[in-house]
Amino acid sequence: MSPVENQKSKRRKSALIILSFIFLLPLASPQEEYEYNIESYSIYFDIISDNTVKETIEISLTANTNFSRYVFYSDYPVENPDAIVKVNGEMKIVNVSVSKVIGGINAVYVKLPPVHPGDRVDIKLSFYSSGMLQDVQNKKQFAYYIKFSQPVGVFYVRLFVPRGYAILSPIIPSPDMVESSENRLVLEWRRENIKAGEEFYFIVGFSGEIKGFSPLWLIVIFVSAFVGGFFAGVLYKERKGKEKVEILKSDEEKVIELLKNGPILQSELVKRLGVSKAKVSLLLKEMEKKGLIERVKEGRSYLVRLKQG
């Protein structure tokens, strides 16, 4: 083989290698890197009174980079926050602070000691809040909405309903478990392999305090909650159910009337409609699917407007 032919052969091989690299590059590109991987994310809601809920969040994560702060965002007021943190199993003293950000969102800052790649961090954050409990059609309704910005291994929720309250419809989604604990009713949900952007709505109705409460009531509540939760979950997933459709239709009309005057922040819609944040989020998601409105990200909230055309 002549030196010229040999050079051409080398150039062809080099060109093939470069082309192969270009075509394979999208396949080999790494996934989005997060500061940490969240193995588990648990939320416990303890109803203290008609207006107050104690919220406890337990997070287990593994660091991918160096960081020294964890931030939790809440649509609801945050009072008396407190945190316990373990880094690689060792208890650490931390500072917790709260501040308002865009859209009236509360940011809870947990100041951590320096965390390095590979470190395991366990955070337990507790605080008191209001706004999750509302009076709807002469009964109480608990409503909560959460959207994850990154993948989570296991997501776990527990709602503790105090002694003397009966669970009523709606129960969305259907709980994975209902049990009694220390004369309290406990509803439990568990989900695995949560994807970034995945969102969850929790809505539970219950009556006012029952006089002359007895363990027999607990059995009745258990059965009714399980059966009611199953059917409510089916209605939620299939978007069928006459009562729900009628309510949404009425609220859709209210939203459209408000938006005729121009775009509105989602947090402002909650105030004007006078319903829970979870219900407004669910309603707007439905309207967006129908092509009635569109939502544009505005900081931690959304700017809602009528769909053009």
TrEMBL record:
Residues 248-306 form the DUF7343 domain. Keywords: Membrane, Transmembrane, Transmembrane helix. The chain crosses the membrane at residues 216-236. This is MarR family transcriptional regulator. InterPro entries: ArsR-like_HTH (IPR011991), DUF7343 (IPR055767), WH-like_DNA-bd_sf (IPR036388), WH_DNA-bd_sf (IPR036390). The keyword Metal-binding does not apply. SUPFAM superfamilies: Winged helix' DNA-binding domain (SSF46785). Pfam families: DUF7343 (PF24034). It comes from Thermococcus paralvinellae.
